[in-house]
Amino acid sequence: MVAAPVDQVRTLYRTLLLYAAISLLILTAGLVEFVYFEPPGHHTGIKATIVGVYQYDPDKNAVTGPDSSTFPRTAVFAAQVDWSSLPSDVVVDARWYDSFGNIVGGVGPATPPELADRTIIPVRVPPGFRHILPGHYLFVVERYEGGVPVEVIGRRLVQVER
Amino acid sequence: MATLVDTRSARPRPRRQARYTIAIVITVTLILALVASSILNYIYLEPVAGRTSLYGLLAIGLIALLTFVGVRALYRDPAERRRHLIRAFVLLGLAALAWLLLIDVFVFTGSAGPNVAVVSALACLPTTAFGLFVLRYLDRNETEPWRLVLLAAAWGAVVATSLVIWAESLWQTIAIRTLVPGPGLEVSNAFSAGILEELAKGSAVVLLFLVMRNEFDDVVDGIVYGAAIGIGFNFMESVSYMTNLYAIFAPEGVGPYAAGFQWYARQVLGLFFGHATYTAFVGAGLGIARQLPDVRRKLIAIASGFIVAIAAHFAWDAWLTLFPIEKTAIGILEIHLRTLVMTGPFTAGVLALLLLGLHIESQALADQFRKEAATASGAITPDEVPILMNPWQRFRQRVRAFQRGGLRAYFLVSRLQTAQVDLAFERWHRERQELDTPPEVEEEMRRRVVALRRQLPA
Lengths: 162, 458
Hints:
The structure holds 2 protein chains of 2 kinds.
Chain A: H1 8-37, E1 49-57, E2 62-64, E3 70-72, E4 77-82, E5 91-97, E6 103-110, E7 120-122, E8 135-145, E9 148-161
Parallel strand pairs in A: 3-9
Antiparallel strand pairs in A: 1-2, 1-4, 4-7, 5-6, 5-8, 8-9
Chain B: H1 14-44, H2 47-74, H3 78-112, H4 114-138, H5 146-178, H6 183-211, H7 219-249, H8 255-273, H9 275-290, H10 295-319, H11 330-342, H12 344-374, H13 384-388, H14 391-431, H15 440-455
């Protein structure tokens, strides 16, 4: 009895199935990572009060002018947070992110009473640069649990013009 | 493989009509997705994005028209085909220009200026062309026609980028307003890029698979078309990143370095290791599905191709930050190693499929050449079999023809060889029961080979 020749296309098919199985593991790992950093059921309803985003005077460590969502790239700006609006037993931080996802300023993590004297959170000019880079800037106040930020309780988007 | 005759009147072909119907459904779905995405962006996003949507639709409309005219052109008589092709290329030029104008004027050149965009595009053209040449060269048994390879690259550059710029903007706008910044947001954005970009690019491979079945033989063709679409996408993405980063860093005096780094990372390091690899997997899935006997396995193969492409793309975007690059000389080495470690395994995987596909194809063609020679039909003689089996021998035969009879003889032999290879592919597919064309096509192809042989000088 002569065995039928093996169809090599089936070898291709099985190889692809093996790749797909590995790929599903990769995608599952991605989902697990997402759930770890975005755990469901962690929304407390707490809201941080972001008073506004203003031009910043680094010499006086003070904000000036009106609340704004747009700044020229030559300006330095800072967010002002009212920490007293939060329960005193939560751990929070505040961070600025640039459009590349880099952290370019922030305070915490700490409890609101510990941050009481740090209500102004400026954006830092990147080392070696004269001005901040243009693009979207995201300011967030985050609540921590188990050493990881699990919930955004305040958020502002700012555009820095080119 | 080109079907050399129009056999539409030979007999009805219901399966062929079915796949055309699927192709129309996909096309309509894509257009609806574009329109819906455009309207949502116009309502919810910034004005620039709104205008981008409107002008993008114009570009997509032109490309859709081009595709329609182009496909029609392939099934008409030579005179009419030429007219349609001219029309198609004019429209392609207009669509490409419209899109370039779109991204340059409304997205980037407001700051970087059109000169930077033009320089960036010119810098990316030679590397993109090199990539497409290499792809065609890899398909050594039967190189795909330039018109389809370029059409695939144009889809990747123009249509796929248009589809994703809107969809990804929406996804990221929602994500940035709802998620915690950091790894979670990065993973979300990576899912967005992996899923949306691979679906946008992959839809072109699916359409080629459905509409151009005669030029879509197996896994090798699928990989070539998929990678061509990826290279086209990579071209437009490179231009976008180069102009954008130039505009961001130019005031600090490092704009050209930022653009130059993007060019190197995307057009040299990432030419084959990025989008080309990802979308090649979609093509591989479709190419394998082309040769599977039952619908269930076909669907699994197609889905598998998409899953691998999405996972490969996702892995790069999500875990790029796991390999930080130092701002020292050693950083240059790290950039290369990062690409090799993160995308290298996927590129090796697609190369393995390509090599196995080429091996299967070569064996099948050799078998069919021998069988055809044995029929003594005159289409393939026993002496020609070893020549046809070897691309290098085929090239040498063409060179010998050129030495004897000049350029005309070279092209005549080239056409004869192509027709003989096409006949062998037709026989292979018929033997495997993978064809929806009538048997008369094979006989017509045989007659065509004999007719071409008669035109050769003695």
